[in-house]
């Protein structure tokens, strides 16, 4: 018996007209749709007159339900997975189903479409060539602190998701770790009538939401640390060592005195002659 296929189908994040013809045809033709919330997805299916059976697949049943769905596909059924909005597997339990399906040798294909992180990035007015997606910050304190610490060194544009009732806390954490002057774009109601991208700084955003209540789901697009800032921080760290201590750092690694002086000069942003003169004092 020929095995079925798993179709990873992106659905609209707000505006229903953003669904693709390919996704519509797929949802109509598969044997079963695995939906994050069937109560939410039935509105989408009804709107497009899709009668395909659904089954709930979400964070709390993803392991057992994935095994069931994999068996259905091994028995020849075609399955489409959809999330509440956007692309499955992006900050979504769909990744577990894809993992199990891949291990079982099932064919997997993705039908591309809307993704909130890409939509927000493109209207943020921040650099788009290099970016890092962190989804929702963890609620657990130690894990959250560790990730925020990692982000302090990030030079790429950063993208986070946040719920309205957690927004002020997250902005406060970002201000403390990244600095209030860092640029940020707060995107909400994406693709909907009242879509908004608030381009500001972290401290100004925090002040804004002390006066008004956040509404809607947010995508936060945050400026990365500049290379110039990173280089200056490195120079400041090296400056805490005396030049002889700095030299010893490289000599202990087996460098020649000449190469060590060159490395020290580069670290400190000065000429090799200055290092030589300081060592001869």
List the helices and strands in order. Answer: EHEHEHEHEHEHEHEEHEHHHH
- The low-confidence runs, each spanning 5 or more residues with pLDDT under 50, are none
The CATH topology of the largest domain is given as Cobalt-precorrin-4 Transmethylase, domain 1
Number of domains: 3
Number of strands: 10
Tell me the distance between the termini.
84 Å
Q: How is this structure best described in words?
A:
The chain has 281 residues and is of the alpha/beta class. It folds into three domains: 5-114, Tetrapyrrole methylase, N-terminal domain (Cobalt-precorrin-4 Transmethylase, domain 1, 3-Layer(aba) Sandwich); 117-224, 2-Layer Sandwich (Methyltransferase, Cobalt-precorrin-4 Transmethylase, Domain 2); 228-279, no CATH class. The chain has twelve helices and ten strands. Helix 11 crosses helix 12.
């Amino acid at each position: 018996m020929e095995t079925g296929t798993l179709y990873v189908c992106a659905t609209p994040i707000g505006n229903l007209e953003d669904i693709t013809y390919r996704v519509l045809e797929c949802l109509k033709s598969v044997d079963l749709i695995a939906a994050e919330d069937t109560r939410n997805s039935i509105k989408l299916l009804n709107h497009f007159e899709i009668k395909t059976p659904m089954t709930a697949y979400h964070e709390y049943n993803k392991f057992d339900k994935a095994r069931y769905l994999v068996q259905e596909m091994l028995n020849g059924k075609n399955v489409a997975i959809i999330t509440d909005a956007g692309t499955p597997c992006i900050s979504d339990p769909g990744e577990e189903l894809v993992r199990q399906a891949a291990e079982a040798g099932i064919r997997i294909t993705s039908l591309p479409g809307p993704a909130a992180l890409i939509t927000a990035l493109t209207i943020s007015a921040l650099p788009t060539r290099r970016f890092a997606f962190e989804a929702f910050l963890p609620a657990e304190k130690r894990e959250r602190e560790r990730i925020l610490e990692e982000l302090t060194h990030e030079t790429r544009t950063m993208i986070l998701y946040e719920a309205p009732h957690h927004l002020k806390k997250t902005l406060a954490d970002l201000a403390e770790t990244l600095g209030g002057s860092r640029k940020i774009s707060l995107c909400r109601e994406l693709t909907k009538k009242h879509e908004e991208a608030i381009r500001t700084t972290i401290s100004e955003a925090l002040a804004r939401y002390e006066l008004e209540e956040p509404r809607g789901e947010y995508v936060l697009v945050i400026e990365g640390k500049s290379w110039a800032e990173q280089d200056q921080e490195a120079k400041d760290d090296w400056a805490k060592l005396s030049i002889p201590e700095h030299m010893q750092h490289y000599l202990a690694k087996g460098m020649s005195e000449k190469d060590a002086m060159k490395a020290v000069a580069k670290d400190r942003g000065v000429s090799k002659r200055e290092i030589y003169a300081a060592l001869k004092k």
